[in-house]
Amino acid sequence: MQLGVWISLAAYFLLMIAIGIYAWRKATSSSEEYILGGRGLSPSVTALSAGASDMSGWLLLGLPGALYVSGLSQSWIGIGLTVGALVNWIVVAPRLREQTERYDNSLTIPGFLGARFPSTARLLRMVSAVVIVVFFAVYTAAGLVGGGKLFASAFGGDYMTGILLTMGFVLVYTTIGGFLAVSLTDFVQGCIMMLALVIMPVVILTTDGGAGVGPAVDRLTAVDPDYFSMAKGMTLLGWISAVAWGLGYFGQPHIIVRFMAIRSVGDVPMARNICMSWMIVSLIGAVAVGIFGHAYALRNGLTVDDPETIFIILSDLLFHPLVTGFLYAALLAAIMSTVSSQLLVASSSLTEDIYHALVKRDATQRELVAIGRLSVLAVGIIAAVIARDPDAQVLSLVSNAWAGFGAAFGPLIVLALTWKRMTGLGAVAGLVVGAVTVILWIALGLNQSLGGGEGLYEIVPGFVASWAAIVLVSLATPDRGEFRRL
């Protein structure tokens, strides 16, 4: 590996650690500061933190790999995500920011749900915390798989060593600086990711081996006439499964917790516009990397054994070592921004919703911060164990965890914020039914084969079942007037 690559990577890692130290000095004196940064995030930091923690290694590995193999029809996932993210910013963001402060200054999603439904507070906090920790262990593992693939593919190193190194750097700045460190590093990482996804397609098309857009399109359609068809191989179930990814946004704790931390409700529209602009540019860039990366491989006789590594391969082939190091840093940024956010949210639930709420209610602020740091370490170790299989696919792991959160928490969050008649028992029912439906759907293989044909993404039945359970159980149980008015 050339010196320039290591110089760029070293600069990136030092910057992340420096941000962690800055955040430690500024905002880790209390549980609220460690978990939510004191509710003082600016619109720009909130926007890019939400976007970067959302997209993860999927943006630079999973999505380009899917486009590389199957063509433009795979872009329906990106379209569904864009619509879902926009609705999430409009419906959930302002309400969650206002209501989490109104309901006992809640610091976590389970804490908010417990305050919103006091009749079932302990049960709701415990169940939701368990769901968060279980699914985040899988979700974090997806990010670590990306780190392992980068280390093995780019550096020729050991896959497991890559996982441990990725986790090690994330643990350093997350345990030191808490939520503020995670949010500030997300902001920097989001900028790096978007810049990389703009640079890469341009260089692919303008380099000698690329030959421009027209020849690239001709080369791909010569191999597969339907490569650019949005309907290629698409059935109704397949289309629903793709666009249904957007439903997951409403229930992703590591994303919506950013809404809780923004400075004020009035800052939400500006943050929304910044985030959506970043997201659209980044998704278009990822699609272009997959498509034109495939054209480049065909033109130059390049063998790509794992399509999810096309970004890594082209980074090494097309750029000066210093720029290659920057592009590797962009991939690490995508991975680490999500992993750090997930670790912090999972540890926050363990700290606030299990240890503080159920084990030791009189714990000091210093003690809670210490427990939070230990929880980050514990969840990270579990995720590393899950990610140890080098044949694991990033997109597959992400899709399972995304569906679990979307089905368990999506209807629960939306209805808790908007429907006054919802009851505590309805909340518990929706949470359990959504999570169990997703798990059973995956276990029975219905997400891959339904009725002998194409499967249906598990988030669809999970979301519908959870929503129905909340409505039916709420209407069947007494209204205790648990919705607080301003």
UniProtKB/TrEMBL annotation:
Main location: membrane
Similarity field: Belongs to the sodium:solute symporter (SSF) (TC 2.A.21) family.
Cytoplasm recorded as keyword: no
Biological role stated in the UniProt entry: Catalyzes the sodium-dependent uptake of extracellular L-proline.
Ranges annotated as spanning the membrane: 6-24, 75-93, 123-147, 159-182, 194-216, 236-257, 278-298, 368-387, 399-418, 425-444, 456-476
Reactions the enzyme catalyzes: L-proline(in) + Na(+)(in) = L-proline(out) + Na(+)(out)
Record-linked CDD domains: SLC5sbd_PutP
Swiss-Prot/TrEMBL keywords: Amino-acid transport, Cell inner membrane, Cell membrane, Ion transport, Membrane, Sodium, Sodium transport, Symport, Transmembrane, Transmembrane helix, Transport
Localization annotation: Cell inner membrane; Cell membrane
InterPro entries per record: Na/Glc_symporter_sf, Na/Pro_symporter, Na/solute_symporter, Na/solute_symporter_CS, Sodium:Solute_Symporter
Protein name, UniProt field: Sodium/proline symporter
Highest rank taxon of the organism: Bacteria
Translocase found in the keyword field: no
Membrane topology of the entry: Multi-pass membrane protein
UniProt gene name: putP
Species of provenance: Paracoccus angustae
